[in-house]
Design brief:
The protein is an alpha+beta fold and about 425 residues long. About 40% of the residues lie in helices and about 20% in strands. The chain has an 8-stranded mixed sheet. The protein has a 3-stranded antiparallel sheet with strand order 5-7-6. It has a 3-stranded mixed sheet with strand order 8-14-15, with no helix packed on it.
């Protein structure tokens, strides 16, 4: 969530920055400023009323002591009037603050200066591309046909058990999933990330803290009886570990990694781009979360990008790194790099990771702070990245490692799978 200071210090700059994300913020920003002005005016009037009320209350005792009962009774009536006024002002202040908050949360995060201009994915900037040198059979098969051929993923059974977007992994397909999860976690812990295993259901406060609520409630599975949400990513519970926490500067950086199943409704998704593993409602993902001091958060982001790249490179997949343009970025992000792997069979790039710096946007919602050298509390910066999302990694592995003999397994995964080929 943006702070009032960010908005009030430079109204025109705030409107201009959010326009880079394709968001017309002028009306909301003007409303926020007007509500903040009203809040301040009410608070001033309330403070004056309470001060007058306190003085009048003290006068009552003095008058009673002097035997001036009639004057004391008059002051009591005056105090009662002031109490009614202060109660009204307090109620009005609460209502204005609630309305102010409800408008503030509608504003997305400011994009960083280096975010490219543009409103669609076609305008994202390719910052690096690494091609594949894998020799594939003539007319390579897409992963959904390979899954059926080798009986390792059953999409129809998933439809029977639950519905479309809930595949069943079998045999070596299931073993490959487990191998990837363990490999990713090992890579992350070796890089200094603390492994945590969080719940896969979160409360409303957690959803608000990382920005999924109220922006993306339609994309989340909601257990209405208990008002819990199934996690769309481990980012939500892991980052919320530090909700309402005040850290010291010595605590940074805080680096965590977690595996969870993830659940996304993906409402409105259809067509060839969602075939097979391309877009699922339930999938496995290993996540990175980092908390950073503001002055070094972009160095931390560069480190996370390099770390994710090392994992993709170890798998031997063709990949590219994109810096997302303003219009293709998430509501909460200040700067995002996407990793995509190439599907030779589908002739398209598949996103497998997003690595983002949210600056203080999430921290303001989370009330995640640290105590600085000035002994005051300041908002920390939060970052996260997929490391990695499994479905499209699996799709790319199946498609890019297919051969006449079967599907070969990348060398780094063989110690985890226990086999080197799927026949």
């Amino acid at each position: 969530m943006l702070t009032l200071k960010q908005i009030r210090d430079d109204r025109e700059g705030a409107i201009r920055k959010l326009a880079k994300k394709g968001f017309d913020a002028a009306e909301i920003i003007d409303k926020v400023i007007a509500l903040d002005d009203r809040r301040k005016a009410i608070q001033t009037e309330l403070d004056e009323t309470l001060a007058t009320q306190n003085r009048a209350a003290k006068e009552i005792g003095a008058l009673m002591g002097q035997g001036k009962k009639e004057e004391a009774e008059e002051r009591k009536r005056f105090v009662q009037t002031l109490k009614e006024t202060s109660s009204r002002l307090q109620a009005e202040s609460t209502a204005v603050q609630d309305e102010l908050q409800s408008n503030l949360v509608l504003l997305p995060n400011f994009p960083a200066e280096i975010v490219p201009e543009g409103l669609t994915a076609n305008e994202n900037l390719v910052v690096k591309i690494v091609e594949s040198y894998t020799k594939l059979p003539e007319n390579p098969l897409p992963h959904w046909e390979l899954a059926r051929k080798y009986d390792i993923i059953d999409f129809d059974l998933g439809v029977k058990l639950t519905g479309a977007g809930f595949p069943v992994y079998k045999g070596k397909g299931a073993r490959l999933q487990r191998a990837l999860i363990n490999f990713f976690l090992d890579c992350n812990t070796k890089a200094g990330y603390l492994e945590v295993e969080p719940p896969v259901m979160v409360n409303e406060a957690s959803g608000f803290g990382t920005g999924q609520l109220p922006d993306k409630e339609g994309q989340m599975y909601h257990a209405t009886v208990d008002n819990f949400y199934l996690v769309p990513t481990a980012e939500v519970p892991v980052t919320n570990i530090y909700r309402d926490v005040i850290l010291s500067k010595e605590d940074f950086p805080v680096k965590m990694t977690a595996y969870t199943p993830c659940f996304r409704r993906e409402a409105g998704s259809y067509g060839k781009d969602v075939r097979g593993l391309n877009r699922l409602h339930q999938f496995d993902k290993v996540e990175l979360v980092q908390l950073s001091l503001p002055e070094v958060s972009y160095e931390a982001l560069d480190g996370m990008v390099a770390h994710v790249e090392s994992i993709v490179k170890a798998l031997g997949l063709p990949y590219r790194i994109l810096r997302l343009c303003g219009g293709d970025m998430s509501f909460t992000s200040a700067l995002t790099y996407d990793f995509e792997v190439y599907s030779e069979a589908q002739k398209r790039w598949l996103e497998v990771s997003s690595v983002s710096n949210f600056e203080a946007f999430q921290a303001n919602r989370l009330k995640l702070r640290y105590r600085g050298d000035d002994k005051k509390t300041h908002l920390a910066h939060t970052l996260n990245g997929s490391s990695l999302a499994l479905p499209r990694i699996v799709a790319a592995l199946l498609e890019n490692y297919q051969s006449e003999e079967g599907i070969r397994i990348p060398e780094v995964l063989i110690p985890y799978t226990g086999f080197d080929i799927i026949k």
